[in-house]
Hints:
There is one protein chain. This protein is of the alpha/beta class. The chain is built from twelve helices and 16 strands. It is 30% helix and 14% strand. Strands 5-4-3-6-9 form a five-stranded mixed sheet. The chain has a five-stranded mixed sheet with strand order 14-13-12-15-16, with helices on both faces. It has a two-stranded antiparallel sheet with strand order 1-2. Strand 10 (322-323), helix 7 and strand 11 form a beta-alpha-beta unit. The longest helix has 25 residues, at 423-447. It is globular, with a radius of gyration of 24 Å. This is ROK family protein. Belongs to the ROK (NagC/XylR) family.
Amino acid sequence: MAVPEPGPQPAPVWPLSGAAELVAPGAPAVVGVADLRATNAAAVLAVVRSADPHPRLSELVRATNLSRPTVEAIAEELVDCGLIEVVPALSARGRRSPGRPARRFRFRPHAGFVVGVDVRPRSVTACLADLDGEQVAVQRQKVRADLSGAARAAAVTSAVEAAMAHVGADTARVWAATVGTPGLVDRANTHVRQADNLGTWAGTDMVGILHDLLRCPVAVENDANLAALGEQWRGVGRAPAPAAHRPDGTDTRPDETPASATGPDGADDRPEGGEPFEARAGEPAVQPADRPAGNDGRTEEGEPFEARAGERPGQPAAEQAEWPEGADDRTEGGEPSEARAGQPAEEQAGVPAGALTGEMVFVLLGERLGAGVITGGRLLRGHHGAAGEIGFIRFPGSSGSPGSPGLEPLPASVVAGTAAGEAEAMAAVESYGRRLAEGIAPVLLALDPALVVLGTGQFGSADTAPAARLLLGAARTHADTLLVDPPRWRLSSLGDDAVLTGAVRFALSSVEVVLRTRPTGLGVRAQDA
């Protein structure tokens, strides 16, 4: 009897693109046995990922309301496909318990990977991240600004291959990829429509080229949009952890300073089972997903623990709790407001640490000017995918031709002069901040965001931090005179890595859809390599 050919694979879903609804309207679909088993597997995997400590089989049964034989079979299947693993149980004293130990299960973040790419006129950066969104390898390459589209695409594939080779990951373990790029991107995230500063890049099928290499879903997205997603996920768009308070009521949380000015951040850039890579200054801070390996001294049939439905780093923005406006009611210097001095920002707003802001504008400053807009917790892309293209605004006082759009970058000499305290340079930075605020004020009036974040890629070292803070203060002060309800203003905490972090986030959101619906299919892909 002939074996039927597999049906067509479902089209990739990019939950953060805003291009389509995840659930089509109409009558509910018929659920088959295979679909039900996949749903149950997703439920078991979700508990394994969120529970702390690592759950036992009996705890998985209680949390999912499935029968013990069903959960046991699903757990074995998830172990076989590499998504989870068994953790030997330890007694409360750290010694193995007598008799048959209760098995605990934990998620394997390195079962698969996603790729994020940041394409710029003079550089290409590729990042390989695990299923928790943690960076495991980053490859940066300098390129010429006048490269053809084909040559730039070759640099992208070279950087991706180098990042994968760094940790010995094959293509079957890469499950999604996203390329961040300047220019206009179509609504379906399949090609670049326009990129005036990148030559023939707009005519290059980067999605197809990278798909041929990785054989996984690939998307392309505007760099400012990705920077907004990255900042919302791992930067100042996320409510901070509780601060350590001093007796005088102030706290130890640092001022908004570019990440590149803080030095190495302790990110755990290591391959699976390998030695840590050399720390790189300016990498975005990440939160390790390690959990305690020991049990709590209870038997397999003991009392259930209270499982936490905790957030995972790769959870899509639509499922995160919104960070209400005013969650961080602080002055520029990081001090609490007088009305709430000494009270953690999370308690002030009544939201947990880690919640995401739902209304935010990220302003990308650098060789080009752009903005990424988060509204309702999701990325706003517009009818043509061109929302946030503030580089086409005609700003006041432009040094270019009369009426020309955009805002020219700050000269490096002005940034350096501001750091040195030169009055003329400081005046130029303040003027730039006022012009920026004047130009984007109508956008802010229309969107009414809770937070405006200024990208700090233009301020790439600790020496330039004074210029960044001066620019922020000037823009905010002037904007406050133009707006009905002024938002909070912050400098990016991700610095030069905002786009790359957002690219990882975008790719990971697609994988999360599969992990929540048919997770064993991803494991089979890795096993078939």
